[in-house]
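Notebook p. 47: complex prediction with S-adenosyl-L-homocysteine.
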Amino acid sequence: MTPVKKLATMTMSEPPRSHGRLSARPTIRPRDLMEGPPPVKGAWTARIVTLFPEAFPGTLGLSLTGRALAEGRWALETFDLRPHGIGRHRMVDDTPAGGGAGMVLRADVVAAALDEAALGTNPDRARWPLIYLSPRGAPFTQGSARRLATTDGVTILCGRFEGVDQRVLDAYAIEEVSLGDFVLTGGEIAAQAMLDATVRLLPGILGNAASTEDESFSAGLLEYPQFTRPPVWQGREIPPVLISGHHGEIAKWRKAEAERITRERRPDLWAAQQGGQNR
Ligand code: SAH
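Predicted complex, structure tokens below:
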């Protein structure tokens, strides 16, 4: 089933937008005249529920993730909260119960958008997690990205303002995930960061352009320092071992440097690594 067919059956007030090669907008051009191949069957799919669909694909449309998106190796679909808003003005938020500053996204509005986004997805949350990005969530790690990359897809709710009415989070048993101990104005940047980290781990996305085996966090360590040409820059040399051609020595040097940097900068990671708890 192509995303276009899927989208056609779930059109409500406005069709969700697809950000891959195929778009939800009707076309008079026959399929074979459209540029590029159709999405790979069963491609990993991200569905984003947001007040700002125009924020996507954003940086995910660039470079390796962008090319993979255009080639249909993964799919990105946005679901606009606004059409589910209440009344003529499509109100999506209201003042917090109990008083205080700001606005809260309404449970009924968010629920309607989540229901729309759920159509056609795997109801098994292990295969298709439902995530609300929130500073109160469990911290997102490389381990989370690795797990997410083994699912069929993910649905991500982006909050705005003071966040989302707690009742919809409870009713839908949404998993809360945080990008870190800071507060953003909305979940869209967090969603892009999370998707970037995940999509690059999908099979066949990076190719030989980068290795995901050697990089930071892969063995519970931060990465060793990298160098490239010129061999001498402003009087600074590349560590001679790296141009020695001696692969065993190079591997030893890199491991020692990765350990030193992890010990110095992230005692928490170092302790976990020593405890054998690779994350
Ligand atoms: N009042 C909330 C913050 C709301 S920020 C609180 O104090 O916890 C508005 C939205 O931005 C949130 O609903 C969430 O979707 C997103 N957001 C903000 N910081 C984030 C973070 N560190 N990680 C993930 N999402 C975040």
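Notes: The two ends are 36 Å apart (CA to CA). Residues 1-12, 22-35 have pLDDT under 50 and may be disordered.
Next step: compare against the earlier run before touching the bench.
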